[in-house]
Amino acid sequence: MHFTKMHGAGNDFIILNNMDGSLDGEDFSALAAAVCNRHMSVGADGMMVVEPPKNGGDYAMLFYNSDGSVGEMCGNGARCICRYGYDHGLAGETQHVETTAGPVTGIRISEDYYRIRLNDSTTLRRKVMVPTESGNFECTYVELGNPGLPHGITVFPGWKELYPDSLREIGRQLRWAKEFPKGANITFVDVIGKNHLEAVTFERGVEDFTLACGTGCGCTASAMLLSGLAEPGTVHISMPGGELYVDADISEDLPKDIYLTGPTKTICTGELY
Fold this sequence. Notes:
By secondary structure, this protein is an alpha+beta fold.
C-alpha cells in the first residue's frame, strides 16, 4: 500500500490515495491507529485518505486521528492535502476539498505555502469556566463546521513555564471536562506582541500536544479578535512546530471567513506492508 507522509508546521500526517476505490473504508480506523504508532510503524498525528468527491468538489478528504477516531476536519491536514492534490494532478492552484465538516477551499501560494478557508464557526460560547485540579480556567468554546470540530481556547501567559508535563495534565483535564460534551481540543495562548500570539494545542484523538494545530489557530485568532486581544488584520501565531497566519471576519459576534496560511512539506513516500 503506497503512502505519502507530510507535515504542516510539524503537524504530521500519512496520506493514502483511494481515488480508485481499491481500499476498504471499514478498515481505515484500525489502519490509522496502526500506522500512526510512532514506535511500531511510520508514525504520525493523523491519517488522511483522498477519495472521489460526492458533492462537486475536486476530491474528498477523510481524516483519522492517531488513535483511530474519526476527525471532522484538520486545518494543517487540509493544507497538506491541498499540496498533495496539486502535486498529484487532482486539482489546480485553487482546490475544493470535501471534508466531513463541510467544504474547504485551498489556494496554492508557492511550492511550500498553502492557504485554506476553514469551515465557518457554527457554535460559540464565551467565558466558559472550567475547573481543574490546578484552578479554574476561562475558555472560549468554538466549533467549526457541521458537525462541529470543538475547540476550547484559554489565555494562559505562563504556559511555557509549565510545558510540557504539568501543562499536559491540565490539557487532559480540560479536554475531558463536562463543560465540553463532545470533548475539545484545548489551546493555551499567550499574547506576545501586536497580533502576535504564542500557542500550543492539546489535541483530542492524539491525546497529547502536537507541534501545531491549524483549526486551533483559526479558533484562537477568532477568540482573540472577539475579546479585543487582537486587532482586525492578519494574526500571527507561533506554535512549537512553526509559524501560522490567520485572517478572520468577526460578524455579528461570530467568526467567519477564517483563512489559515502556512507551510507544507512532503517528508517521504513509501510502501506499507
